[in-house]
Amino acid sequence: MSEQRESIRSNAKYLRNVRPIDPDEICEYVTGNPHPAVVRQHLREEAAALGLIERDDGTFVPVGDEPVRPRRGPVERLPAEYGRRLEDLLVERYGPDWETGASGDLLRSTIRRFKADYLDGRSVDYDDDVAAGYAIYHLPGYYAAIQYALDDLADRGLLDRTLRVLDLGAGVGGPALGLCDYLPDDALLEYHAVEPSAAADVLEELLAETGRNVHPTIHRTTAEAFDPSEAGSGDGFDPTAPDDGFDLILACNVLSELEDPVAVVRSALETLAPTGTFLAMAPADKNTSIGLREVERDLEDERLWDRTAVDFDAESGEDAETYRRGEVTVYGPTVRLWPGERPSDRGWSFDVRPDLEAPAFQRRLDEATPDGDEHAPGEFVNVDVQFSYAQLRLDGRRRIDMRLETSEWAQMAEMERHVTERIDLVAAKLSRSLSDGDGNGGRGSGRSNPLFKISDGSEDTDHYAVVTRETALNRPLLEADYGDVCSFEGVLALWNDDEGAYNLVVDEETIVDRIA
């Protein structure tokens, strides 16, 4: 570190707890009297290590201790500044009329191809054209989805204003931008993206539109090859130390593309802070959603860094203890309501949120489709927000922490013996209504009765609550959010042979209450 930079750093450390740090003032105390702009740039580069945020007036102050509050209301649109930046990139690559002619045809065919490859489980190579098409088609939905998943953490005060984040397979940046905008202006974000493909170029452009207190670093390597020691900073941060680590690790829409996702997630968890969260997300389609849940279940209860292990230290010639970070616990949104029980059903569970406003760049590409092209209007407009997610922690915390007793409630693991009986049970609501539309979880569209996947964390077979008659006493099921836990009194247990699942019939004899 240069003498000048160290002098600026020392002054900042002294003043940070005294008064706002003003570059115009510090420059007078630094050897050589550098210009305030030089001091400001040094402070920006050191801000994450010093725990400082830059205010609108150009001064720097310590970041606050109060946790981030949850967002209120739906995400309505991708902010215009990100759309403009993306269109600038498209103009730079393909020309001012990027949506027409050969470039438009190329982008449309690219989107069609990677959508087909993805649904068929084939790998996708992210060259410049695929990265551009991916940004056009997927950026808005992924931007919104991450914010809904973060609500689970903010609602429990688990999202600090100072965040060190690792984003594995960051892609073109939908989750990154959503995270940046979720945080308040007075939060400090040290963001490390791992992305080896051409998508990193788009990510870099879009991150330039984020706030002054976002400090990004892009590591252009694979998740498998990433060395977490490269993310260390000048304040002694070491993500490989047992008492340190990333506050939030993201793996969004990438696990299905990895050869060994369990190994990658396990390795990432070893760099998670003792009170941090690992957040994995996947599209809502059957294969990727079930695959996400399989990773969650494979790692659950696994111990990282055995606390009693003894290693030989070659430098000292003595034995040295090593300490595990903790035991992998599923924080949410799936539940474990019965001690010692774990679910083994197929695990297809996803959330659905309100559609976004269609961004201008999607409309441009869609409306420019040639008349001779077999094209359904809206083919290149993707405003759906449907996603699966899993949150893992190492401190044993769960979003819903309950321990049920069989003397009071029926257990889904034993549902076979309750068929044709009216029973009482407690379960989490793990879907929006599956009765209509295409995103129905394979239950057959066109059903008139509201239908919801439910779980108590013990089941080996899918369970669904079907509302055959709505009343004031069972309406809480319809009003409950994704992941909320409800009690069901007097629900009728039936076996659905056609679907190979249990139906829990909610009718005029059933009472449903939401459990806080």
Explained architecture:
By secondary structure, the protein is an alpha+beta fold. Helix content is 28%, strand content 22%. It has 3 domains: 1-62, Arc Repressor Mutant, subunit A (Orthogonal Bundle); 80-231 and 239-393, Rossmann fold; 412-514, OB fold (Dihydrolipoamide Acetyltransferase, E2P), CATH 2.40.50.140. Helix 7 links the parallel strand 3 and strand 4. Helix 6 (128-154) packs parallel to helix 7 (174-182) and helix 9 (261-269) crosses helix 10. The longest helix is centred in the N-terminal third of the chain and has 27 residues, at 128-154. The N and C termini lie far apart (52 Å). The model is unreliable at 437-446 (pLDDT under 50).
Task: Give the gist of this structure.
By secondary structure, the chain is α+β, with helices and mostly antiparallel strands.
Shape type? globular
* Low-confidence runs of at least 5 consecutive residues: 437-446
CATH superfamily membership of the largest domain: Vaccinia Virus protein VP39
Mean of residue pLDDT?
Answer: 91
- For the CA atoms, what is the radius of gyration? 25 Å
Q: Specify the helix fraction band.
A: 25-40%
Quickly give the structural class. Answer: alpha+beta
- Count of extended strands: 20
Quickly count the domains: 3
Number of helices: 12
CATH topology of the largest domain: Rossmann fold
Specify the CATH class of the largest domain: Alpha Beta
**Relative strand content:** 15-25%
SSE map:
Layout: H1 3-15, H2 23-26, H3 36-50, E1 52-54, E2 60-62, H4 80-94, H5 101-119, H6 128-154, E3 162-168, H7 174-182, E4 188-194, H8 199-207, E5 214-219, E6 246-252, H9 261-269, E7 272-283, H10 286-299, E8 303-304, E9 310-313, E10 318-321, E11 326-327, E12 329-332, E13 351-353, H11 360-367, E14 385-393, E15 422-429, E16 451-455, E17 463-467, H12 475-479, E18 485-496, E19 501-506, E20 511-515
Parallel strand pairs: 3-4, 3-6, 4-5, 6-7, 17-19
Antiparallel strand pairs: 1-2, 7-14, 8-11, 9-10, 12-14, 13-14, 15-16, 15-18, 16-17, 18-19, 18-20
